[in-house]
Here is the input.
Amino acid sequence: ADIPQLTDILLYHVVPGKVMAADVVGLDGQAAGTALEGSTIAISIVDGKDFLNDTVEVIITDIEATNGVIHVIDTVLLP
Here is the structure.
């Protein structure tokens, strides 16, 4: 297993802070920084649906956990 590559992929899925779905609407056309140093995720809203990096759809939002908020996506984001 390529542990450094897996670590980068996992860190790319983490956005620091608490970002709820309602916050994302105001981020259309912007980028969010990730926990992977120097990497960002592009945010777009198309027909009322949230997309990351143009092709990854957010399908379930705002699952609150003790250590943050989870948003379910339909595929793996790759840095």
Remarks:
- The radius of gyration is 12 Å.
- The mean pLDDT is 95.
